[in-house]
Write a structure and sequence with these properties.
The chain has about 350 residues and is an alpha+beta fold. It has 9 helices and 14 strands. A 9-stranded mixed β-sheet has the order 2-3-12-9-14-7-6-4-5. Strands 1-11-10-13-8 form a 5-stranded mixed β-sheet, with no helix packed on it. α2 packs antiparallel against α3 and α2 packs across α9. The longest helix has 17 residues.
Length: about 350
């Protein structure tokens, strides 16, 4: 590949280049390479003879997964996200909201306060109705520590393997493995670049649905009823504690989970749309006639083929009869109860965001 071709590919693949750059940040020449790569992405060709952007020796440091990324993003990037003015206007209704006292990480673990949390959620769990608890975790350790990328770098070993979604959502992208340190470098550079360039990223890399690291698990208190059946909010069987970390524009497409879900927002803000469950939800159902078209066009059985923000009514006409969704915006300290099999769509609006969730029965 010529340097002229390489330069052209880089200009059309900003997020992938950031990831590649971060992976090489510990290799020779990489600091000099990183310092002037991003500014070049927003400039036009000068007509002068192209200069080498990536030394051959540096390319040897790319691991196999990042080479796959290079090949994928060397093509012209996907179309930009439509502006909010051109997006489909979603008619929604507000979600039921309860505000409990703000408690520190130590106080919130007391039996008295855990009982109060369980009492608040229990009727909604029994009726399987969503509920937003505002500011519940606003004084927990994660609120103070997780907003610092330097804290993540110090708390979690840089070689920890993580899975990252590439693209606007897992419906449209790939999932690759990389080192957590490399992902943090990417996230830092993308957020820094956003401050200089207000353009929406064409592609994003989302550290989604990874098990919460043991090193930071105590930063955020999980309600005790998730693992203790004596609170009478389900059976008290905790299955997974997950981490979600990424820049602005990350999306979880419309889907449902088979277990009850508590989504805990720590850094930044997200908008959540929730649609009630459909009696046809299931792995073995033919959803071609449903409003959600789950499992079609290569999607997972629990994931809708419809882009709810820009639905194609010609291809998915039944979505016009979809039930009116609940809508809420969650911010640091908020906890959202999403009942089993409720459809939900999540978008991040902040420069970067961090969330955790637990699935329990």
């Amino acid at each position: 590949m010529s340097y002229k071709q390489l330069d052209s590919l880089l200009k059309n693949s900003r997020s992938a280049v950031c990831l590649l750059c971060c992976s090489m940040s510990r290799a020779s020449h990489s600091l000099n390479y990183c310092s002037h790569l991003l500014p070049r992405l927003s400039t036009e060709a000068t007509g002068e003879p192209p200069q080498p952007l990536v030394p051959i020796a540096t390319l040897q440091y790319l691991n196999a997964h990042l080479l796959v990324m290079w090949q994928r993003y060397s093509r012209v990037a996907a179309r930009r996200l439509s502006s909010s003015s051109s997006q489909h206007q979603i008619k929604s209704k507000p979600i039921e909201t309860i505000s409990l006292p703000q408690l520190s990480s130590q106080d919130i673990n007391s039996h008295e306060h855990q009982l109060a949390i369980a009492d608040a959620i229990r009727p909604y769990h029994q009726s399987q109705t969503p509920l937003l608890l505002t500011n519940l975790n606003s004084k927990c350790d994660a609120i103070y520590f997780w907003r610092s990328i330097q804290y993540w770098q110090a708390a979690v070993p840089e070689n920890t393997p993580v899975d990252v979604e590439l693209g606007r959502s897992y419906n449209t992208g790939n999932r690759v493995s990389m080192k957590f340190g490399d992902y943090l470098d990417y996230l830092s550079k993308v957020t820094e670049q956003e401050e200089k360039d207000a353009e929406q990223q064409e592609e994003v890399a989302y550290l989604a649905q990874n098990e919460l690291f043991a090193e930071i698990r105590n930063d955020i208190p999980t309600p005790h009823f998730c693992s203790d059946g004596s609170f009478n909010v389900g059976e008290g069987k905790l299955y997974h504690s997950m981490l979600w970390l990424g820049p602005r524009g990350t999306v979880s497409p419309l889907h449902y989970d088979p277990l009850d879900n508590l989504l805990m927002q720590i850094v930044g803000n997200k908008r959540v749309l929730l649609y009630p469950p459909d009696k046809g939800n299931g792995r073995d159902n033919n959803n071609s006639g449903s409003w959600h078209y789950a499992g079609l066009n290569g999607n997972q059985y629990n994931t809708s083929a419809v882009d709810v923000e820009n639905p194609n009514f010609e291809e998915y006409p039944n979505f016009q009869s979809a039930p009116t969704p609940y809508e809420c915006e969650i911010g640091p300290g908020d906890l959202l109860f999403i009942p089993s099999k409720w459809w939900h769509h999540v978008r991040s609006f902040s420069k970067w965001s961090a969330s955790a969730n637990v699935w329990w029965r």
